[in-house]
Amino acid sequence: MPEPTTSYGYRQPGETPTGQRKLLHLLAVVMLVTSFMVIRFPGGAKGFLYVVFREVVKLNMMVKTSGWNSVESEYFLVRYKPGPGNEKNAKLVLNTAESFLEPIAQRYDYKIKGKIPVILYSSREELNASFGWPASERAMGVYWGGAIRVLSPDEWIDYDKFEEKKTIFESCGPMAHEITHLVIDYRTKGNYPRWLTEGLAQYEEYMLTGFRFTDPAGSLDQDLYPLSKMDKEFDSLPNQSLAYRQSLSAVDYIMKVYGKEKMHMIINDLSQGRSVNRSFSNSLGVDMIKFEQEWQHWLSL
Questions:
Q1: Closest by alpha carbon to 94, among 35, 197, 17, 179?
Q2: Is residue 5 domain-resident?
Q3: C-alpha pair distances (Å), 101 with each of 64, 105, 167, 221, 256
Q4: Terminal Cα distance for the chain, rounded
Q5: Dist. CA 177–CA 183, nearest whole Å
Q6: Which among 155, 183, 211 is the end of a domain?
Q7: Which end of the chain is more exposed for a tag (fewer CB within 10 A), N or C?
Q8: Is 210 helix (H, G, I), strand (E, B) or coil?
Q9: Model confidence over 229-280: pLDDT tens digits?
Q10: Peptide bond between residue 4 and the one before it cis (omega within 30 degrees of 0)
């Protein structure tokens, strides 16, 4: 399962014994079906297993939050706890998500099926605890396991007027970024390098909102991380600003030098279960070693 990993020991409201029994029953059925698929179709087993696991994780999240309040639209279900301003914030998250989903889905040929769960957390501590993360984590939004988790705008936007809060959340909030992660994950059945999805998420975020990370620590005028290291160790890299900036730069390079159609070819190849190296060779005509060399030469021009 792609990062981030999470701890399932954290109890949320709505995690009832009945819900747990249903989940255990579903898991038993899933194991039987999965065993059959692995035997019957060994070539596609990895993608199938990932899809099954992702949907079980999503169902688990829905069971845990089943007692929460909710607002919904055609494509999203936003769940939130009762509290002052929470319903208004949930509707802001919902409307923002709806405005971004269609253009991103169209660009990556993603067929929307069912409602996408979005879980709204009132505090940073609550969001971090849902993953078992330390309180020092500063994420405003996270995609994992078929669901998007979002920090309440009240926690990071210091404006009393709702219209000002709305403008900032739409332009600087996490929704375009996390929706892109979701679309790429579903399109490829989880078969993607971490740097690619982070680069695409930032690329779409910039295209839709104009927002870009500008931390000077992410300057590309320094020793860069190998892309292979960025895939396997992304979250543990000491300079996270550089890791994100490199991801966006590599995607920018593909879009500007090879074109958007080539990026779509890469995504399509990955969706067929092909390796990253083969997907790049098929789509760009270069393997990953040559791609990295050409990209870094482009940066030096």
A1: 179
A2: no
A3: 25, 6, 18, 34, 24
A4: 38
A5: 10
A6: 183
A7: C
A8: coil
A9: 999 999 999 999 999 999 999 999 999 999 999 999 999 999 999 999 999 9
A10: yes
